[in-house]
């Protein structure tokens, strides 16, 4: 069989549409605002060998790390038709514990192809003739607002993985189409909000089953042989596109260094260093020289580090390029074992997924700016500004746990200003609307606005950050995991850096500064104020432009 360019494009979009429809189903049926409103989830389709074929337009930090989760599930479990694996272990391909991943295989026989050849009407997935040949996996990952950690919402300060919540190795959540009640009961017994967790988890199951049906319909229409052929063709196609993109980068070695503010326990900055070797259509990304694993939870597992590399190099390609594992074929990632970018158990990792992943992107783009100065933007806010809190909801007399990330400023681009008040790079989530937040939890949003003037100046100005004030209507315990409170988001080509962020607790008329990574107790009536960083500027402001501004 020969590759037909038109059919290749058709199959690329077919698999992408499966991932997108899974995401839409998950969003519509989830219980928590974190998934329904913020869209903190991701869906993907992998081939039968565990290689990514299509990814929804969801969370980059989830998607790029999924291959290791699928590999862990394949190694640990003999997955058959109707089975669903569940895991969240960061040391088995996960990211951090609140992110629960479901992996479901889709099997097929050649009966669908025979039906099509005989002219029979294409039937629903249930009639597609599942057999022993595994064609693809359908996967989704969603951030649960609590997973039983020491702090409400399980995103607090921690020194080891055991403080961050329930750690789930690959286990069967469903066998032959039936949910395993003992596994579900074990999970729900270890979280503060079992009703919401069950609702979100069953929404993930529904999304997997929808993906299974859609793949079955695809097989019924095109047959197993053709579908399998184009699954392989997409891997080769994406690898060729990445090699071509790498050849457009001048051969050479490009270095950069950046720092996290701290790890939450020490004031010492955490160094991230990268060396990118580009040669003949290949790249070696080496993080030697990065800090050793820290006491606090800013450590990254290798899956997250690889995900950040995948994201940055994927950004060098056009939007129509398939998001396949083949994109990483020409790229080698080297991360010293035991370092902050390749932490080993039992290191704490809650913030590595959200904060360190952003800084890895910053340092990679900073290095590539030396090679492609006219393509690389200045640093964006560089933090997800994670806040979480919990207490007892007086409306239900039950515990609640809430988690959100807050947007910041986008870095200016070589030909455009940065956007203000947006989630950038590894997050790609949305805000929680005020109406949804106030209706679900005992809080009141006192202010939600752009932080004017926080973007760096330059020929093109960086985007502004956000000011968000939340008043607590009950006593709560909360946590903040943030960064860029000491080191400003850098500008490029002479542009100025953006402003750092600030965290404040307004308590009985007093303003209490909160460190970038902190836990707090807030009585009823207190207000949490988060000011997020702006993006860096790009390019020097010419003297002519300065003169016009003065006039």
Extended strand count: 20
Tell me about the biggest sheet?
7 strands, antiparallel
| Share of helix, binned | 25-40%
First-last Cα distance: 69 Å
What spatial order of strands do you see in the largest sheet?
Answer: 2-1-5-4-3-6-7
Strand content: 15-25%
| Overall 3D form | globular
How many domains is the backbone divided into? 2
**If you compute it from the alpha carbons, what radius of gyration comes out, rounded to the nearest whole angstrom?**
23 Å
By helix and strand content, what is the structural category? alpha+beta
Overall mean confidence score, pLDDT: 92
* Structure annotation, total helices: 12
Show unreliable segments: 110-130
Describe the structure.
The chain is α+β, with helices and mostly antiparallel strands and 551 residues long. The chain folds into two domains: 5-240, no CATH class; 377-551, no CATH class. The chain is 28% helix and 24% strand. It contains twelve helices and 20 strands. The chain has helices at 5-29, 33-36, 60-63, 66-76, 111-117, 181-188, 194-222, 224-247, 302-314, 352-368, 434-440, 543-550; strands spanning 41-47, 52-55, 84-87, 99-108, 133-143, 171-175, 178-179, 252-260, 270-279, 282-286, 331-334, 386-393, 398-405, 443-451, 465-472, 476-481, 502-507, 510-513, 517-522, 527-531. Helix 5 crosses helix 7, helix 7 crosses helix 8 and helix 9 (302-314) crosses helix 10.
């Amino acid at each position: 069989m020969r590759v037909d360019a038109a059919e290749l494009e058709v199959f690329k979009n077919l698999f992408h549409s499966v991932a997108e429809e899974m995401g839409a189903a998950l969003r519509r049926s989830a219980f928590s605002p974190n998934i329904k409103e913020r869209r903190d989830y991701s869906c993907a389709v992998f081939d039968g060998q565990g290689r990514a074929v299509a990814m929804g337009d969801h969370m980059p930090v989830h998607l790029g790390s999924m291959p290791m989760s699928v590999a862990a599930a394949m190694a640990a479990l003999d997955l058959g038709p109707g089975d669903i694996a569940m895991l969240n272990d960061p040391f088995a391909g996960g990211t951090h514990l609140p992110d629960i991943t479901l992996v479901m295989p889709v099997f097929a026989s050649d009966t669908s192809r025979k039906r099509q050849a005989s002219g029979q009407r294409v039937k629903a997935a249930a009639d597609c003739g599942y057999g022993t040949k595994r064609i693809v996996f359908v996967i989704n990952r969603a951030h649960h607002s609590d997973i039983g950690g020491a702090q409400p919402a399980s995103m607090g300060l921690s020194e080891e993985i055991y403080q961050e919540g329930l750690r789930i190795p690959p286990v069967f959540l469903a066998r032959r189409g039936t949910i395993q009640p003992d596994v579900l009961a074990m999970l729900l017994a270890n979280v503060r909000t079992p009703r919401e967790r069950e609702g979100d988890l069953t929404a993930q199951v529904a999304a997997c089953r929808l993906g299974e049906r859609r793949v079955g319909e695809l097989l019924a229409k095109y047959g197993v042989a053709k579908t399998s052929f184009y699954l392989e063709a997409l891997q080769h196609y994406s690898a060729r596109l990445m090699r071509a993109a790498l050849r457009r980068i001048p051969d050479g070695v490009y270095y950069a260094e950046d720092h996290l503010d701290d790890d939450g326990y020490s004031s010492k900055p955490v160094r991230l260093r990268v060396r990118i070797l580009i040669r003949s259509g290949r790249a070696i990304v080496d993080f030697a020289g990065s800090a050793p694993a820290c006491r606090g939870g800013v450590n990254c597992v290798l899956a997250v580090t690889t995900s950040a590399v995948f994201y940055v190099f994927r950004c060098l390609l056009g939007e129509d390029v398939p998001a396949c594992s083949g994109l990483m074929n020409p790229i080698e990632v080297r991360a010293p074992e035991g370092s902050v970018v390749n932490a080993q158990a039992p290191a704490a990792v809650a913030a590595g997924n959200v904060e360190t992943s952003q800084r890895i992107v910053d340092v990679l783009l900073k290095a590539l700016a030396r090679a492609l100065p006219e393509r690389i933007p200045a640093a964006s806010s560089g933090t997800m500004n994670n806040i979480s809190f919990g207490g007892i909801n007086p409306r239900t007399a039950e515990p609640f746990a809430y988690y959100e990330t807050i947007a910041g400023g986008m870095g200016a681009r070589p030909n455009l200003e940065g956007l203000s008040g947006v989630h950038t790079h590894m997050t790609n989530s949305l805000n929680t609307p005020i109406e949804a937040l106030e209706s679900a939890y005992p809080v009141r949003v006192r202010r939600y606005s752009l932080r004017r003037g926080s973007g760096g100046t330059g020929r093109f100005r960086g985007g502004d950050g956000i000011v968000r004030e939340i008043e607590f209507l009950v006593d709560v315990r909360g946590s903040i995991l943030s960064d860029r409170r000491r080191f400003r988001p850098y500008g490029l080509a002479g542009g100025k850096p953006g402003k750092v962020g600030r965290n404040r607790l307004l308590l009985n008329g007093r303003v209490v500064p909160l460190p970038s990574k902190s836990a707090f107790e807030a009585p009823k009536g207190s207000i949490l104020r988060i000011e997020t960083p702006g993006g860096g500027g790009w390019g020097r402001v010419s003297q002519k432009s300065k003169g016009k501004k003065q006039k």
